[in-house]
Specification:
Low-confidence stretches: none
Order of helices and strands: HHHH
Number of helices: 4
Structural class: mainly alpha
Strand content: under 5%
Mean pLDDT: 94
Length: 132
């Protein structure tokens, strides 16, 4: 994939992540309150917030010219994978009571997603320190 190609992929993915975060945020603010307790709504909001943070960071990443294509890909994949696991598992764990099923067995996925996000930020720091 060319440098323009990876940047385009990062930017499109970031925009989709942002769009989904806004849609889920609206659902959490309006529809979710009717079917789950306040603590669950707060957890859901945390997932939305982290998804939006990383959507914005990916928008920036796709426009950075100081990082190589390989570094951008690594950071991008860590952020997208981490967001999917972290926020996605929070969304599922929040609505499981409303669906009438127990998804508590997937609770271990949330910290794995958090670890991927942390690694993404660590690679950002290392990459920025290496800039000459």
């Amino acid at each position: 994939m060319s440098k323009t190609g990876i940047n385009k992929t990062i930017l499109i993915t970031a925009a989709v992540m942002g769009l989904i975060a806004v849609l889920l945020g609206a659902f959490g603010a309006h529809g979710l309150k009717k079917i789950v307790d306040t603590e669950s709504v707060n957890s859901f909001t945390t997932g939305v917030r982290y998804q939006m943070y990383h959507a914005i960071v990916c928008l920036i990443l796709g426009n950075l010219s100081v990082l190589s294509e390989a570094v951008k890909k690594r950071i991008f994949y860590l952020f997208v994978g981490g967001t999917f696991l972290f926020s996605g598992s929070i969304y599922l764990l929040t609505i499981d009571e409303a669906l009438g099923i127990s998804l508590s067995s997937i609770g271990f996925i949330t910290p794995l997603g958090g670890l991927l996000l942390i690694l993404g930020w660590l690679f950002c720091i290392i990459s920025f320190v290496k800039i000459k």
